[in-house]
Amino acid sequence: MEYFIQQSINGLTLGSIYGLIAIGYTMVYGIIGMINFAHGDVFMLGAFMAMIVFLALTTFIGGVPVVLALLLMMLVAMLLTGLWSWTIERLAYRPLRGSFRLAPLITAIGMSIALSNFVQVTQGPRNKPIPPLVNGGVTIYGTGITIAYKQMVIVIVTAILLAAFWYLVNRTTLGRAQRSCEQDRKMAALLGIDVDKTISMTFVMGAMLAAVAGTLYLMFYGVISFTDGFTPGVKAFTAAVLGGIGSLPGAVVGGLLIGLIEALWSAYFSIDYKDVAAFSILAIVLIFLPSGILGRPEVEKV
Amino acid sequence: MADIQSSGQDSVYVKAAREAVITGIIAFGLFFLVIGFRTDQNINNELVLAQRWGLLAIFVAVAAIGRFIFAAFITPSREQAKLAKSKVPAAAKIDRRSLKATVSRFGLALLFTYPFVVILILALIQFAVTGQWSFQSGVQGSLKYVDNFGIQILIYVMLAWGLNIVVGLAGLLDLGYVAFYAVGAYSYALLSAHFGLSFWLLLPMAGIFAATWGIVLGFPVLRLRGDYLAIVTLAFGEIIRLVLINWTVVTKGTFGISGIAKATLFGIPFTPGPTGFAAMFGLPNSGVYYKIFLYYLILFLALLTAWVTIRLRRMPIGRAWEALREDEIACRSLGINTTTTKLTAFATGAMFGGFAGSFFAARQGFVSPESFVFLESAIILAIVVLGGMGSLIGIAIAAAVMIGGTELLRELEFLKLIFGNDFTPELYRMLLFGLAMIVVMVWKPRGFVGNREPSAFLHERKMISSEFTKEGHG
């Protein structure tokens, strides 16, 4: 039982990171119906930004308190990754809006290839290890279950961000504009909503969450490489589909589920086949529940 | 009047300058961390920062100047051209059909003679430089061009034509096509290693295996549509690759299978011995014959794919695919069995992937899971879409441009003279490939050949402009 709880905790931390990335996929899909394949690489770029900020802090200033360093890493990574995502949307996706559906998918795949290779060319192909930022953990009294402090950081940061995000989507003008664009873009435009700006902001918000996920990933594993965008990206997308694409709570639930499945499968079955397990469960869920766990069923209009 | 125009001119430049400054600021924000700093490992394997402000300045300047030129010159001239075009009535239209026929005839002739043309050109160059007529040196030098360009491009042409049946004709978005390629390659590698079966026997078997997998994977996803289908096929592609990596007893994992038997010309092996191809035809020993043989083999396989596609389009099943692509509900209302229609599309596409896979294994003599990553599926899909879905010629052009272009980058050794000896053009291959995908797609969203010829028509065949063709969403 202890082992099960320990693995579940590990799974939930991993799942939080997937959930944060999955929100970016699901929001973009909800609003313009496009799979943003470059999102995994945006996440990787965010992690690289955080890594460079960390190095700049230690090189130029010296000992910075860990909390401050983490905050700075997240903030700078969020800002710059958001800017990247805005530029990507402006250059590669907006000109193709209203074109046929596969066109933005192809530019997104091209952007994903270009981004990861851009990072490889500019930062070198090797793994980038950083010293551990947060050490230690607590053991729950009377059991063998330990929770590392860095796991707590991940869960707390994710919870705070999700709360802020929920507020942004449900209680602000921007969020209302987003929800209206999601329901009917033409009607929203007729009612005076700047649709292009709303879509841009959606991309920026998704990228900011991905940047935080990247920072947390870097803090948790202590290493990042230019290829690290693909697998977390695909898994986060899996999470978004699993939860019901277009649904924000669904993305979080899907992320946590994928994290749990992965951790428990590695613990009880085989660590080599953990990705196979995640993908198989995706296929099985989709076959029996085609609109995901929390998604709205697609209604076909003739 | 002149005044107004000049002030209008001025404002264009002022506006362009303003946009250039904004672009410069954005570019600074984008590249400030990633270009301004470089992270390197020191001896203790710790990361250290190196600063590159000069390079950052160049990037920012290029972005700003590029934006200025674009806003000040290119956009106004484009708008003028558009205005001029809208005034002239659309009268002089090229007869596209005869043009297309000429292009395809010329292309076919070039494809059939390509190895010999290369040999001849190289021999002529040799003759011009040294004054000696030596056919043999042309033969040796042609190896690279036949192998790197000819065979490599044709493999992708064949794969893209195979995927075209699934995506272009039936409108089913498949992101895991490389799985069938892998099934074909591994079935040839394993069966020839364990049972010693010949290439000509295993080629159809690889196709059958891949088609079977196409049905097995196609069956559960029948109910899914559009993007769900895309993600499940992607997942299947990844599952097959992960199984190939982890099932080490059979596949030897990431080490791959090496020493795969070569293909033979109906039993005549391409070996240096007395029974080999060279000895039998009294030719000097050389590795070129095998490459030229492989070239014609893949050319034959690719043309087979094209021929089958063209014939199938005229058969009921091909029409059912196209009907499925245009409107699934209407298709079902007219009594077409969508289940078998989808499954046959999956199976036929997968079969050609399997053929290409077994050819790939015979050509490389080595297969490993590294060759079957998602990137390959993405490249093949990109070629199909860039070519204009459904158009065989467009797809062939797209494959030649994208694959040939990136292969060409390997040859640009002279760039070292400009950028210094550390410069390796290969590094930029995939970066440029990705950027080219974006640029081509933004420039021509319908692909190189966007219009379609209808397969069924009343009285006369009319071209369907790309504006009217619908995409698949099934």
UniProtKB/TrEMBL annotation, chain A:
Protein name, entry field: Branched-chain amino acid ABC transporter permease LivH
One GO CC term on file: plasma membrane
Pfam families: BPD_transp_2 (PF02653)
PANTHER family: BRANCHED-CHAIN AMINO ACID TRANSPORT SYSTEM PERMEASE PROTEIN LIVH, HIGH-AFFINITY BRANCHED-CHAIN AMINO ACID TRANSPORT SYSTEM PERMEASE PROTEIN LIVH
Membrane topology of the entry: Multi-pass membrane protein
Highest taxon above the source species: Bacteria
One annotated GO molecular function: L-leucine transmembrane transporter activity
Keyword list, A-Z: Amino-acid transport, Cell inner membrane, Cell membrane, Membrane, Transmembrane, Transmembrane helix, Transport
Main location: membrane
Family as reported in the entry's similarity comment: Belongs to the binding-protein-dependent transport system permease family. LivHM subfamily.
TM region positions: 12-35, 42-61, 67-88, 100-119, 139-169, 203-224, 236-264, 276-295
One annotated GO biological process: L-isoleucine import across plasma membrane
Keyword Cell membrane: yes
Compartments (UniProt record): Cell membrane
Source organism: Phyllobacterium myrsinacearum
